[in-house]
Amino acid sequence: MDTSTVSDAFRRERYPYLRHHADRVYLDSAATSQRPDSVIDAEDAFARTEYAAVHRGSSMATGEATWAFEAARTSVARLVGAGEREIVFAENATDALNMIALGLSDASAGLGAPQLALAAGDEIVVTEAEHHANLIPWQRLARRTGAVLRAVPVDERGVWSVDDLARVVTPRTRVVAFAHVSNVTGYIAPVAEVVATARAVGALTVLDACQSVPHLPVDLAGLGVDFAAFSSHKMLGPTGIGALYGRAELLDALPPARTGGSTITTVTIDDAEFLPAPQRFEAGTQPVTQAVGFGAAADHLVDAGMEAVRAHEAELAGLLVDAVLSVPGTRLIGPGEGAERAGLVSFAVDGVHAHDVGQFLDERGITVRTGHHCAQPLHRRLGVAATTRASAYVYSTADDVARFREALSDVRGFFGADR
Q: Which GO terms describe its molecular function (predicted)?
């Protein structure tokens, strides 16, 4: 690997927001990451010189725009070890997860793909740690089909194991949906073991990869999951676009959640036949400019090298854990000291509400996230209404964590909670 390329990809100067706010520490990348010049430039160039409809007509303009759109799909597929037909552009990961659940709901209603149908008494398994986007669609699917929604419990740290999951999965389990990396705890799930457990009973696996694709080397085909979802804006790209991954044969069997233009082969007054994936899922006018930026973000990460990204963030994860554990009266959520985790930490400060912690840090020039992080069941299980989360990315530095640590050490004293 070319180390000069890796170091260049990590340089803060390549990210306009960080250049503009050189005095601030940005530790909220798990919510939305910053974009490098290469991504913004790619979007701008397309919008200025190639902007046109895609997959419509036979003009030169359409051909150029379609090439850019599909080249972006190729870049995203390359990043995650997928075939080009296995990447569907969605509005975001939430949209992608809903597309899966709604497709299974339609299959259960008899709209094709009987092998994907659920029936009353079947089971859908999630974990207590899931983001709402990987929970609520399954609640709805269970209610529509009469299936039973079951949850894998977490421990006092918010962590679950494959043994915990194995005790919940039964021969009636049809879907197992779980996060590769928890957006609250930083826990990295044992994907291969979960897939094996699900396959043993014939269940589909749905992976929320929002916090893994940007930060870890991910080979979705190699992991063996059936479906996955991830978002552009968490991996250096623009908002408004994400990806649904599915094994090609499953995507071709899954009824499209949205229908209309661009998805069909033949339409009569009474019926319609749909294209193969991915076009069968991409109804209407596509977010082409955003797709180009998404592809550029994927290229940026490939050029950086995902092993290098992971190594950089693993070091920062250790520093973040040390920072939280160094402050008396501060409770670390998730895996403990020395345990593998992603480059984020969530914590609760005794006697100080998470929102007050976040405001104090913000006034010190440190951007973090506060709240329940769209994971209310997990916070309820942990006995806290909200936590504060600091999350690093490729452009984060040890100096950033040092500033975070120094400011965090002053929180309880400022609010009089150390008396």
A: cysteine desulfurase activity; pyridoxal phosphate binding
Helix, strand or coil, per DSSP, at residue 190: coil
Delimit the domains of the chain by residue range. 3-30+306-414, 43-303
What is the DSSP code string of 45-99? Answer: HHHHHT---SSSSSSHHHHHHHHHHHHHHHHHHHHHT--GGGEEEESSHHHHHHH
Coil, helix or strand at residue 234: helix
Instruction: Give 188's DSSP letter.
Output: B
Residue 55 clears pLDDT 90, i.e. is over it? no
pTM across the whole model: 0.95
**Gyration radius from the chain CA atoms:** 22
Beta-sheet pairing, 366-367 with 227-231: unpaired
Q: Return the pLDDT at 59.
A: 86
Of the listed ranges 21-30, 88-97, 206-215, 410-419, the one predicted with least confidence: 410-419
Distance, CA of 36 to CA of 236 (rounded, Å):
7
Q: Are 332 and 345 in contact (CB under 8 A)?
A: yes
CA-CA distances (angstroms) from residue 206 to 82, 94, 180, 232? 15, 12, 10, 18
Q: Is the pLDDT of residue 306 over 90?
A: yes
What b-and-e string marks burial along 21-60, b requiring 16 or more CB atoms within 10 Å of the CB?
eeebbbbbbbbebbbbebbeebbeebeeebebbbbeeeee
> Over the stretch 398-415, which tens digit does the pLDDT of each residue have?
999 999 999 999 999 999
Return the CATH number of the domain spanning residue range 3-30+306-414. 3.90.1150.10
The length of the chain, given as a count of residues: 419
Mean pLDDT for the chain overall: 95
- 163 Cβ contact list (under 8 Å, min separation 6): none
- Residue 337, phi then psi, degrees to nearest 5: -60, 130
**CATH number among 3.40.640.10, 3.10.310.10, 3.20.20.80, 3.90.105.10, domain 43-303:** 3.40.640.10
Minimum mean pLDDT among 11-20, 54-63, 375-384, 408-417: which range? Answer: 54-63
Q: Does the annotation mark 210 as catalytic?
A: no
Give me the catalytic one of 283, 374, 384, 417.
Answer: 374
> Which are the contacts of 243, defined by CB distance < 8 A and separation ≥ 6?
76, 80, 87, 88, 89, 90, 93, 96, 229, 230, 231, 232, 294
